[in-house]
Structure of DUF126 domain-containing protein:
Amino acid sequence: MSARQFKGRVVVKGSATAEALVSKGGFNTLASYQHSLMFGDKEGKCSDQNNSDLYKKPMAGKALCMPQTIGSTTGGLVLYCASAMSRQPAMLLFSKEIDSLAAAGAVLAAVWTDKPMPTVDMLGDDFLSYVQTGDRISLAEDGTVTVER
C-alpha cells in the first residue's frame, strides 16, 4: 500500500477518514443532490447526468474530491440541506480555492447541524491528478490529506 500527503487550507476544521469519490470537472451542487433531497435517496446518489465521474454514485459518507463547484447560487443551501438530512459527504476536498457558496454551505452545516463536513481547499492540481475514486482518504485537522492506495 502506498500513501501520499497533500496540504491545503482549512475552511471547516475536522478530521475524517473515508473512501474517495473524485470529480475531475466542476461539481454542480444542485444538479448532483437534487434527486436525493427531493425524493429521499439516503445514499445521496449523484443525479447530475453531465458529470460522468459521479453520476449515480453514492456521495454520502465519501471524501468528495473536486476542483471547484459550479452552477446554481443555491449551492451552499444544498450542502447544508444534505448535511441536515444525513446525506452529506464525509469531507469536501477542493484542488482549487473554494467558492463563497460552497464555503457558506460547509460552514452552515458545521454550525447548524451535528453533522459537519470538514472542508479543505487549495490542495493543488497535483492532488486532483493523483487521487482516484476508491482511494482511502484521511484528513487531519491541520488540512493534511493522506491518500492511500
Q: What stands out?
A: The mean pLDDT is 96. The first strand starts at residue 3 and ends at 7.
